[in-house]
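Researcher: Re-running this chain for the archive, since the previous output was lost when a drive failed. Same request as before.
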Amino acid sequence: MDILIKALLITHVSAGFTSLGLFFIPMFARKGSKLHNTVGRWYTYGMWGVVITAVLLCVLRFAQGEQVVALFLGFLALLTSRPLYFGIAILKNKEEMSDRMLRIDILLCGALTVFSPVLLVFGFGLFGLEGHPLLIVFGALGMVITLPDLRNRLRGPRPKDYNWLGDHLSAMLTTAIAAFTAFFAFGGRKIFGDISGNLEVVIWIAPTLIGVAAIRFYKRRIRSGHKVT
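Model: Regenerated structure tokens:
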């Protein structure tokens, strides 16, 4: 089993690292260009690789009794898969969300809404459980990202402010938020040295702050009628 876990971990890290590198190309390339579409497709393939390996590692780690790691990997897979699915599905539903797309999105939103408080409970070490600040960060991140979307979805299947481009960019940026947060959480010590305390938390939440700012910037430009490049 150790060999299997090591192989999955190498694949997981390789897919994640490659995706993070590719992310910046469609991010800054002209939207709708061949470069944006081609590299963006490669990015999604890599991120699905991250999701699938995270699910498999979650199961194996849980079987080994490593609850914190298993919870984190399982939640990371769920948190990433929802915007990854939505961001691509919306390209085929530019006029309005299809019933199938809406049902799947509500299902994933509901799962995250349930999973996020569970992560917080484990993170704070309640009920005698092993606490970990990383679980708190991701539990809070899941609630911040998911609750507004779930509320909007349940209001009605066809929101009046439906904008496929804004929602596509928001979804893909959300996948990057999850990926960069995980990267800095696990690789931060190797990059920034031995860090701890408030500085470590700042590094963990920095991708969320930057990502949310980028999402608001793009949506504001779209609403004001400016061309998004």
